[in-house]
Amino acid sequence: MNKFRSHNCNELRIKDVGNKVLLSGWINKKRDHGNLLFIDLRDNYGITQCIIEKENQNFKSLEKIQLETVVKIEGNVVNRSNETVNKEIDTGEIEVKIIQFEILGTCKELPMPVFTDQEYAEEVRLKYRFLDLRRKKIHENIILRSKVIAFIRNEMNKLGFLEYQTPILTSSSPEGARDFLVPSRLNPGKFYALPQAPQQFKQLIMVSGFDKYFQIAPCFRDEDARADRSPGEFYQLDLEMSFVEQEDVFNVVETLLVNTFKEFSNKKLMFDKFPKISYTESLLRYGSDKPDLRNPLIINDVTVIFNREDVNFEIFKKLVKSGSKVRCIVTKNTKDNPRSFFDGIDKWAKEQGASGMAYLTIEKDNEISARGPIGKFFSKESIEEIMKISNAEVGDSIFFACNKEVELQRIMSLARDKIGNELNLIDENLFAFCWIIDYPMFEKDEHTKKIKFSHNPFSMPQGDIDKINFDKPLDILAYQYDIVCNGIELSSGAIRNHIPELMYKLFSIAGYDKKQVDKKFSGMINALSFGAPPHGGIAPGIDRIVMLLANEKNIREVTMFPMNQNAQDLMMNAPSEINEDQLKELNLSLKVKK
Q: Which of 94, 128, 95 shows the shortest CA–CA distance to 112?
């Protein structure tokens, strides 16, 4: 028998009554009833209630012991009385009557309680992350993460993929986020970069003749933190396939995600076959390329209405003449909602930096009409046209916003979420996946007005290559795609450009000459010139997948040792200063900005 335990703390059942056992774990909780002391002993697997009577010579020692002390307990398994059975835990029908105990690890005064999942300040939680990770909810999240990764690995093997590891020290990339740089001791004045993603390497794996690659890959980006993005590092399921089209990638990813989400959640999938929405349509109908399809609200463009002579809403008409657009959201059967609901949305929109949201409600007495602050500005015919465009019906209300395209998309996307939540339209027991497709290859930089890549520069443009009009780069679409779930982007992917001449051409549009491409992407360009297969892939974020499965709003709750918002590890005091000897060895000197 192991000298520390015969069973774990989630193992004992009625069948074990009468047996002498050894348990080891942390003292999770104590309840002193005077003549009887109850101790909840916790390990990685669960909790067992242990009891000791006052007559036992160890009673006083256990009575004084600090919570989270690590102990070994020897005792006998006994039945709980009917009225004390705890159905909340697996061991709730038994308890262990303590014979003797031994302290294995002492514990100082706790900076935060472990037996509760109540919220604590981020600074405390991250400084004492090893204590935070003992708490039930986050402990279970990390175990879930491990199980999800193991399941994904198994599923990828079933789908014919093999796992390969790519380098961590590589060259800096001119695209994407900021790199984390590592100085080279053996090559003075030169730096490695930690990979933002294994993008070039996984393409080189395809060029090397391997057919299906995957990796649970660490990625490093010097980005600011968000609720769904860790600063510094994250993990993704990186995959790449040779001799495939876009639909082949979709089939693999859909199979994997459907199986994973059905395995680890009781929530329903809204679609087993994920809908495909073009980037342009997504921006129009949802105001975002990360739509939450659980929300049934749709945005419609009604700009044309404000060119009519029988519409007298002059504020919008003037803005439309100057190039603004008007979009609307219909709320079904809200004619009886209180005025405070409508005014509340208008006030909220102003707080978001918009000029507000105008609204009306459609009525019918003898004929179609509208009531509300702007209802009087519309004729019967103009209201009927709005109803036709937006599929509105009598009894529905319509919210309108008017602005330039980018700002209008922003406020309508926020309004769609706000109204959907206000009306309780979003089913929290659903996962709604979709593909966003047909991204533009290029976009115009708002500040410099220069043409730049909008997505992945290594993507294949759509259409017959010999017939692409490179003089109109903003019209070129790419085989680029995102996978989105419940409004969260899980990944971006693409069918890759494997033709060197075409790559030079596309990079030239974005301002890179041949020499620059050869220098920045020498490994890639060189490899593609030696017979490259058509290939493509994607890289769903592991952290975000687990965040959705664990029903968490912040990625910190599913990451074992996250950094804070300032990319600091408070537990290990990183980043830290280094001494002069280390700097000299790396041929570096520091000039810190004040």
A: 128
